[in-house]
Backbone:
């Protein structure tokens, strides 16, 4: 290799998360450095949060650990009162999608978004971006990691500022939201007006191939896709790297949480509303030893560890508990299972498992059938009892707004779930994470709407959400643009 390539991976604002760094960018940095390149992460999101919060803000820890151990109200207020008005001041031509903020979901055209990005880059916020970038050594490759649509406008502005600051820098985008748009991007060259190439999926190998190609002044590898090229290539991954976390002093709000991963893809993979199977690919386990450096760092720093796996099965949870041996408190996502009884949860707790996030989604029988995830009320109640008696906290994901239901029915069912949790407090530590259903374009329901009794009524280039209409049992349920 003639020379090493220097890469800077930027995380644009705003992610409503402040406890710890992101796993994906840290793995890219690890892969790049292992191959002799120079790479760093620049998390603009946590820097933006810190810049807009009081220096000594009070943020007590949650009753659970993991992704939901965050100052939720504080960050939601910051998004609503500061970040969204900022977006609104630059992006005005949007359609209003029922149940979602149009400036975060990007219900707008290519032209409207590009004009807004240019305005943002020329504003005081663009000057802030430039000042932060200028502190870094000039990179050959600027990576932009985008988890959701609300980061896109700032991400485009970062590219504009970076190209002015560093003429000739290659701007390459990746992340879950980019992967959610993969089929659009390969068909539409307009996505490439501000981005040189896109990477779809987990990408440690492809990222190294990109840096190798830049060092050799060779063509970009197949996994780096140009907008409108017509052919879709998924990136190649290598989960065998220990993540390189940087700037940990910026996080820890409310307490430092380090991400880890023991598998990729979802071992269930049949939920009709979910995009994980398409975005993450087929399920594959990772050697458990790979979590050891993160666990040890968590022990050394007094941090908790959050497993980012889409779903960890009970047997795998037990193996992780045996490996971790309570050196850190940790969390993981799983599914309701008879195997998660009191004895099993007690073994997990002995191994340091503090919190399990479970996808209950709905107790409505017809909605369970529709989304392909049947789970009995009796099993849910047994799980609540087992968690209470074993001392394991729960985050219970619940969704309303599924096609085929009425608001009155769903509110009654949600109230029942809330009552069941209240009955077991204070010994049960539990948080109900309630979200409204949105039709995601790469979910099974979004890819085959007719199969689910839906009709797509609108879509937008940079948005992963679709507007839709369908018939309910007593009334129509819709997510339509309001013009």
Residues:
């Amino acid at each position: 290799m003639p020379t090493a390539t220097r890469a800077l991976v930027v995380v644009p604002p705003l992610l409503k998360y402040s406890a710890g760094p992101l796993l994906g960018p840290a793995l890219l940095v690890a892969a790049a450095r292992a191959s002799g390149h120079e790479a760093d992460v620049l998390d603009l999101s946590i820097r933006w949060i810190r810049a807009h919060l009081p220096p000594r803000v009070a943020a007590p820890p949650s009753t659970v650990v993991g992704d939901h151990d965050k100052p939720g109200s504080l960050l939601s207020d910051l998004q609503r009162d500061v970040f969204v008005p900022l977006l609104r001041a630059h992006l005005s031509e949007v359609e209003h999608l029922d149940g979602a903020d149009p400036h975060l979901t990007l219900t707008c055209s290519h032209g409207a978004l590009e004009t807004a990005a240019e305005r943002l880059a020329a504003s005081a916020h663009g000057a802030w971006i430039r000042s932060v970038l200028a502190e870094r050594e000039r990179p050959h490759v600027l990576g932009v990691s985008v988890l959701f649509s609300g980061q896109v406008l700032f991400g485009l502005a970062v590219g504009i500022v970076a190209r002015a600051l560093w003429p000739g820098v290659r701007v390459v985008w990746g992340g879950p939201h980019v992967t959610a748009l993969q089929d659009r991007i390969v068909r539409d060259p307009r996505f490439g007006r501000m981005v040189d190439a896109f990477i779809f999926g987990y990408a440690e190998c492809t990222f190294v191939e990109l840096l190798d190609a830049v060092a050799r002044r060779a063509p970009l590898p197949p996994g780096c896709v140009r907008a409108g090229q017509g052919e879709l290539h998924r990136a190649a991954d290598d989960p065998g790297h220990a993540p390189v976390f940087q700037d940990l002093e910026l996080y820890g709000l409310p307490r430092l949480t380090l991400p880890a991963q023991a598998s990729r893809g979802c071992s269930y993979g049949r939920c009709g509303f979910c995009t994980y199977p398409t975005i993450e690919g087929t399920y594959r386990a990772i050697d458990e030893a790979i979590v050891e450096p993160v666990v040890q760092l968590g022990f050394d720093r007094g941090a908790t560890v959050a497993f980012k796996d889409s779903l960890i099965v009970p047997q795998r949870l037990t193996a992780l508990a045996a490996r971790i041996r309570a050196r850190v408190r940790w969390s993981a996502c799983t599914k309701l299972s008879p195997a998660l009884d009191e004895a099993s949860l007690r073994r997990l707790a002995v191994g340091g498992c503090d919190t399990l996030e479970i996808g209950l989604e709905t107790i409505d029988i017809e909605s369970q059938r529709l989304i392909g995830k049947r789970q009995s009320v009796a099993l849910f109640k047994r799980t609540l009892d087992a968690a209470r008696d074993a001392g394991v906290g729960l985050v219970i994901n619940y969704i309303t707004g599924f096609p085929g239901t009425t608001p009155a029915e769903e509110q009654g069912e949600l109230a029942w779930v809330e009552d069941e949790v209240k009955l077991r407090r204070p010994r049960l530590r539990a948080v109900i994470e309630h979200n409204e259903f949105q039709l995601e374009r790469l979910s099974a329901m979004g890819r085959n709407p007719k199969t689910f009794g839906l009709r797509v009524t609108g879509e937008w280039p940079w948005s992963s959400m679709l507007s839709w209409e369908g018939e309910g049992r007593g009334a129509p349920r819709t997510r339509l643009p309001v013009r």
